[in-house]
Each structure stands twice: as C-alpha cells, then as structure tokens.
Amino acid sequence: MQNEPEVTVVRLGHRPGRDERMTTHVGLTARALGADRVVLPDNAGKSRDTIADITDRFGGPFSVECSGSQKALIRNWEGRVVHLTMYGERIQDVEADVRAASTDAPLLVVVGAEKVSFDVYEAADWNVGVTNQPHSEVAGLAVFLDRLFEGRELEREWEGAEQRVIPKATGKRVESVDEG
Amino acid sequence: MQNEPEVTVVRLGHRPGRDERMTTHVGLTARALGADRVVLPDNAGKSRDTIADITDRFGGPFSVECSGSQKALIRNWEGRVVHLTMYGERIQDVEADVRAASTDAPLLVVVGAEKVSFDVYEAADWNVGVTNQPHSEVAGLAVFLDRLFEGRELEREWEGAEQRVIPKATGKRVESVDEG
Known about the structure:
The structure is a homodimer. The first copy, chain A, is an alpha/beta fold. Chain A contains six helices and eight strands; from the N terminus they run E-H-E-H-E-H-E-H-E-H-E-H-E-E. The interface between A and B is large, with 56 and 56 residues.
C-alpha cells in the first residue's frame, strides 16, 4: 500500500490439487489486507492465475509470482523477516517491534503449509504466533496484517479495477468502474 | 470465552472432499480466536472430528456439532446475527454496534461457502464485509473475531488440555499438561 511498510508474503510448500484453495486464499488475503506482493511455490500456477485474475478485476497494485527458490528469497532478504507459526512468540508481545522495524525496511512474511524446516525459524527475525493454537495459516496471516497496519488496510483504494463492490446493509451491489 | 459475549459460528454449505480443509479451518479459527461453538453442515463429519480432536488435545471449552437445519438455526436465533460477506457494510463502520449488542445477547456469526441465498442476508442483523474484496471466509472470520473481542481472545486460558505450546523465539516447545 502507498505510504505503508512494503510487505511481501511468501507461501512455503504447495501440493497441487490438495492445497490449491488454501494457497489461493493465502494470496487473496495478502492482497485484500494490504500486502504488496505474494510469492508462491513454482507448482502453484493455478493459484497464481486465480489471484492475478482477481487483481485484474478488482484492482491493485498487487503482484503475484511463482518461484522455485523461496528458501533463497528468505535467506537473502534485504529487510526483516517474520515467520508465522503457532510455536512462535505471541503477536501481542512483538507486533509493536515488527511495526517499528517495518517503517524503513521491506518486510517478508513467511506462511508455511505443512512442516517447515528449522532453517526458516533461524532465518526469521521474528517467529510469531497468532495464538499458540493450531488453526489456519490464512487466519494467522489475516490477523497479522490487520494488526501490522492497525486497520488502515481497510481504507485502501484500488487502482485499475474493472468493478467495485459498494458496501450495503442487505443484498449485493457491484458497480463497473469507469476510470476514463 | 468466560466473561465475554457468547459467540456461535455457523458454517453454511459444504462439499465433502472439496471443502474439507476450508470447513476445518473455519472451525479451528472459531475455536482459537474466542468463539464458544461451531455448527457445521451435517455432511461435514470429517471436519467435525478433526476439530473435536484438536479440542481434546489443546483444550476448551469449545463445542463442535453438525446440523441439518442451519437455516432454521439462523431464522430462530434468539440474539443477534452477523453474516460475513464481501457485499456487506464495512467492519470498521459497524463493529462498535455489534460489540455493544453482543454484551447481553448471544451472537451468531454466519460464514458462507459458495453462493449464499438472499434469505440469509435478510435474516442477519448485520451483513458485514471484512473489506469489500474477494478473499477468504477464514480470513474474514479471523479479523472479525479479533476485532469483536478487541484482542482479549489472545489472552484466553484453555481448560482440559493434554498439551500446551510454549511461545518461543526460535524453534518449538510443547509441554504435556498435568492438571492433577
């Protein structure tokens, strides 16, 4: 988002078929809640296409890509790295530090699928638990981003959208966007 | 949670196989982030078993059940009903009202799967959008609960747990719980 910390989300691990929707939801949640970019494993092309399609229709800027070298991305990241894990420090204890550190360096948020190897824990500046309970990487990412941006992501404006949902007390209202 | 609004989450719609993980994640997110109960469709027995197993191991109180009459549950609910939908009013505009109304009446939070019929929009006291963007019902539920409880759900204690994760800066630490 403009005038906000630059945030990239990287999704580790993807089993085609089985993980399609979870990976897609990680990417769509990253986009909707203020991240700038998501990097998926290189076998997650189907999820990438869905996320790119939503961005075309509902706006950006947001970028999605597949990569075969996510471990290297984490290792060589020039900025700070947060790894979301139920084993980590409590988000309410570390979020202020993460927020402060993100104002002048890009933040990489690592979201695991199944088992995450120990070198990811070591490469992270913070291992962060959104509760220390087993639940959902999508839920953890959502709460983390909402707290990182302190709700400002809910006010963001979208560029280049073809359509826009108008908030409504009952029913649905979708408008075409004419930016001409 | 004790001393908090009573919250039940109801998941509408479930296609066995295809929706297993999303439905499981809705239930686990409800549990981890402070709801008291989740009601799943009656064909979601596999998700119910997973959620019950996690509750046995990591504690409660939290209840999970399957029901064939979710529409009736919504229609006859004695309390307030929130339906989470990308077409709804902005969460930042209505959360204070929902919070105030939940202090003295149980809250039902409706989480849809695919297409939700119009009578659900009409039965809801609030249709609420966690952004008006397409993303994930799990993400929407997570942010909604975190805002409803204003973060207090992160401090809750768990009863009857067999094991407990101890927050850790690097690595994993899980302890057996001896409540004797």
